[in-house]
Amino acid sequence: xxxxxISRLVGLAWLATALAGxxxxxxxxxxxxxxxxxxxxxxxxxxxxxxSTDAYDKETDATKRKQLRDELVGGRIRAYDIEFSCLERSLxxxxxxxxxxxxxxxxxxxxxxxxxxxxxxxxxxxxxATGILGAQGAISKDLFYQRTLPALLAQMHADRDNIKANIFxxxxxxxxxxxxxxxxxxxxxxxxxxxxxxxxxxLTTQATNAAAGAQADVDAVRKxxxxxxxxxxxxxxxxxxxxxxxxxxxxxVDKLTQWMTKDTTDPALGGIPWPQFVRxxxxxxxxxxxxxxxxxxxx
Amino acid sequence: xxxxxxxxxxxxxxxxxAEVADFKTTNPISVTKKQEADGTYTVTAIYPxxxxxxxxxxxxxxxx
Lengths: 299, 64
What we know:
The complex is a heterodimer. By secondary structure, chain A is mostly helical. Chain A is built from 13 helices and one strand, in the order αααααααααβαααα. In chain A, 69% of the residues lie in helices and 1% in strands. By secondary structure, chain B is α+β, with helices and mostly antiparallel strands. Chain B has a three-stranded antiparallel β-sheet, sandwiched between helices. Chain B is elongated. The interface between A and B is medium-sized, with 30 and 32 residues.
C-alpha cells in the first residue's frame, strides 16, 4: 500500500462497485429488470467458450451453418452490448457522483486503469490520468470530464452502431460469403469501438479532418479578384470612415477580425487576412460578408 | 493563424495602394504591389509558412 494515492483508492473502490455487473443504483438510468450478471455469464459460457464453435465447425449443411453462425454472432453482440452498457452507466454515474469537485478525470482513469484491461491498457490509462493531473492546471477537471464524456460516448455509440449495421447486413449473406471468422473479426471491432481510446481516436480524426477542410477553404481564397460588390463597399466604408486611403479604423478592424475568428459557419475565416475577406470576389466570401454586415450591424 | 501567400488581382493603382496599407495592418512578412501587362495591379501579401500538414497551395505558389 505504500505510495498508493488515496484518490486512486477511492476511484478504485467506487468503480469496482459501479462496474459490478451494473447491479448498483444508477442515477439517470432505468433499472435493468434482468439479472445482468447471470445473463452475461450465460452468454459467456455459451458463445465465448473454446467449444462454442464446435457445432459450427462440424456442420456441413450450408443452411444449418448459417443458422449456427447467426446465433453465435447474435449472442456475442448481446454480450458486447451488455458490457458496453455497463461501461457507459459507470462512466455517467462517475461524472454525476463526483461533479461537486475533485480530481474526477484522474480518479476515473486511475480507477479504470487499476481494475480493467491488459498491462498496456492499465499503463496507458494511468499515464493519461497523470497527464490530466499535470496538464490541466487551473482548468476544472470536472468541467473537462463533463464536457468530454458526452462526446466520447456519442463517438462510441456511432462507431458501434456503424459496425453493428455492417454485421447485420453481412449476416444476410451465406456462410460461404460471410463465414464465422469474418464475423469474429467484425465482432472484435465492435468490442473495441466501445473503448474510450478508439473514441478519442475517432474524435481526433474528425478534428483533424475538420482542420484540413478549413485549411482547404483558406487555400481556395488565396488568389482572388478585387471585388466592388455592395458587401465589399459597405464593409470598406465602415472600416475606412475617413476614406479608403486614410487608413482603417482599428476599432472596427478589431470587431471584424474577432467576428471572423469566432464565426462557426465558415471556420476558415480565421485564417484569412481581413483585406482579402473584404475585397475577395468569391461567392463564399460574398455570403460571409453579408453575414458579417448583419451580425455587426454595419450600415 | 494566418499563413502562406495571399494575392489580390484586378485593381487600379489607387485601389492597390489602399490594399497594401490594409494588408500591412495584418502583420505580414511582406506586401508588394505589381503592375500587370494589362495595366491592372496585383497585391501580394506573404505570411509565415503554413505547417507542412495544413497547406500545400501556399508552398506551391511561393515555389512558382
